[in-house]
Amino acid sequence: MSELTQVEVLWLEKRIENRVRFGRIAEEQKIDRSRRILSFAPGSIFAFVRWTSNDFGTVISRIDVLRAVAPGQRCSTVPYVKPGAESLLRLTGWQKVERVLQAVDAIEALGINPADVAPDHWQHVHNRLSVNESPRSYTKARHQAWLHRQRVMR
Questions:
Q1: What is the 3-state secondary structure (H, E, C) of 76-95?
Q2: Per-residue model confidence as pLDDT tens digits over 16-66
Q3: Which of 61, 67, 75 is nearest to 19 (CA)?
Q4: Rg for the chain, CA atoms, rounded
Q5: Which residue segment(s) compose the domain that 36 sits in?
């Protein structure tokens, strides 16, 4: 059994789109034109976006920010993710998903890889995504504090 967490990404035009928005991919396997398997090392943080529609419009819009687990660790089951992952954030509904994607864009605009952001940010970001609040709640200073905490804890 592999120690990597595998994510099946799928694209069927105007029907299904499963994609990874950010994360450090350890391995990639192409299945066919519309499917790939992306693998992540234990501890890696990644965002998995799922969108499904039918003849009447969007059925599902969901984003999960997940942390890959090592073999034997407890994890949440997530469709298309094997064996599962630790859930840091799970939101459904296009407005909420869009706000998280805007927050990811804001983090990248700071020159920070979202995969390096403090996990507790993702666990609480849904509280900061009200309609009136900016998605720019993660700052360089906050990121530096997180990196410093990581060095101290080692």
A1: EEECCEEEEEEEEEEEECHH
A2: 999 999 999 999 999 999 999 999 999 999 999 999 988 887 788 999 999
A3: 61
A4: 16
A5: 5-153
Total count of residues recorded for the chain: 154
What would the pLDDT profile of 134-151 be if each residue is shown by its tens digit?
656 788 998 999 889 888
User: Residue 27: beta bridge partners?
Assistant: 39
Residue 51's nearest CA partner among 101, 4, 88, 3 is 101
> Rounded to two decimals, what is the model's pTM?
0.90
- The beta-strand segments (E) located in 13-120 are 16-22, 27-32, 35-40, 45-54, 57-68, 76-78, 81-92
- The Cα 119–Cα 130 span in angstroms is 20
Task: Compute how many other C-beta atoms are within 10 angstroms of the C-beta atom of residue 145.
Answer: 12
Structure tokens at 54: 């039918």
Q: Which amino acid makes up residue 68?
A: A
- Number of domains comprising the chain: 1
* Nearest alpha carbon to residue 5 among 81, 66, 76: 81
Secondary structure letter of residue 4 according to DSSP: S
